[in-house]
Write a structure and sequence with these properties.
The structure holds two protein chains of two kinds.
Chain A (H helix, E strand, L loop, with lengths): L5 H11 L5 H28 L4 H22 L2 H8 L1 H4 L2 H14 L5 H8 L5 H23 L3
Helix pairs in contact in A: 2-3, 3-6, 6-7
Chain B lengths: L1 E3 L3 E3 L4 E9 L1 H4 L9 E2 L10 H19 L9 E5 L6 H7 L6 E3 L6 H15 L5 E7 L1 H8 L15 E2 L2 E8 L4 E7 L14 H20 L8 E5 L2 H15 L7 E3 H5 L11 E2 L1 H18 L4 E9 L3 H5 L6 E10 L3
Parallel strand pairs in B: 3-4, 5-6, 5-7, 8-13, 11-12, 11-14
Antiparallel strand pairs in B: 1-2, 2-10, 3-9, 3-10, 7-9, 10-15, 14-15
Helix pairs in contact in B: 2-3, 6-7
Classes of the chains: A mainly alpha, B alpha/beta.
Chain lengths: 150, 335
Amino acid sequence: MKSMTEKEYAKMAQKASPNSPSGKNCVFAFVTGGGICMLGQFLCNLYQQWGVSLPLARAGVSISLIFLSALLTALGWFDNIARFAGAGTLVPITGFANAVVSPAMEFKSEGIITGLGVKAFTIAGPVLVFGISSSVVYGLILWFLRLMGI
Amino acid sequence: MERIGRYTLSLEKVKLDSWASVVGKKESEGPLGNEFDLTCEDDSLGQDSWEKAEATLQRKALEIALGKLSLKPEGVDFVLAGDLLNQCISSTFGLRPFGIPLLGQYGACSTMALTLGLSSILVESGAARRAAAVTSSHFCSAERQFRLPLEYGGQRSPTAQWTATASGCVMVGKEGPVQVQKVTFGRITDLGITDAANMGAAMAPAAAETLGAFFRDTGTLPEEYDAIYTGDLGQVGSTLLCQLMEKEGYPIEPVHQDCGLLLFDREKQDVHAGGSGCGCSAAVLCGHILPQLAQGKLKNVLFAATGALMSPTSSQQGESIPGISHLLQLVSVQK
């Protein structure tokens, strides 16, 4: 092949590669993500109507949405919804539930401990590591600020 | 056997005696749906793991190819096989029951051309009276090794390709209706693409390299062939290959077809840039191209399967994706 630099080819490849349909993805994500939040609010109100206190009702919403996502993942529907919803299902707690349940299902063929146990957090693991680490850092900053009387 | 030019081998005696293709449900719903020997409605093929399902694809492909010649496994001197899974386990476990000497190969999605080319050389040289070339891929086993769990809810890039659930097997001997006239093994070609969701772009330069080498070695031009089939470049890679060949001075667009674009209907089947996987070009070769050559509908074609020689580890370490492409000239024996 006649000489072509990586830079020249990268330009060619970029031109030939279609971009993700960001506009459409954003609209779908907004509608589905908003829909999930509305469902959460509906559940929160419902639990309160049943006489549950607000903090407990909020915890109940999280548990309900996690359960629903896990159920839809197990039924094989979640990925079909997420294909259109994108960030709409990924960003709320539903995405986290799916990220744990889907590898747990996938890798059970390698055994309960060596498959499911090892791989269940293969996607969600980094979220936990960096989520917990950053909360420690923010906590320390807050503690120092309080010590200094701010 | 004679070496022509720098990279091409010219063969005299090698024919393709029989072939078989086995595909999954989605592939059977594609444009070539009714051209395959066996369609599996259940992608698990009754097995309890995807790896076993893929191994079964290879076993069935070899069984059918043997059956077409009423041949027992003892009638085959070597089987050359490969797949995408670590340590090529689909080949090992799928071919374990046959007891044929196995030569495992890895060429990623170029494996069909690699195994077929080497089988042809073994037969031409007299080392084998008959050799079998077989490869497979399975969407579900490839996803879990290279990408994400099946039920994970994510969006794919429009440049991503869909690994075919398919297998193809060719019996290489000296009697069949299709002749292997030339073989060109490709060089590793890497123009620095790092996006693992854009394999077509990573592999197109390798296909251009091998096709260019073949045309220079043989002194022929693209229009002298009825068709030039590349394996699994998809839409993005095909566009780039045609542009690269144009620059090379060998415009192939009027005769170019890509197995990844033939196997699926990109729009209706939601496969993004097209099909991929070792089984994609193998099934298209055995289900679509070889039957047409046998019937004389096609006389003289080039089959250049392409592979991306990366692993999830090399990609995570930031390495670019090296491509490779191996080429065979296949000619109809019918005049």
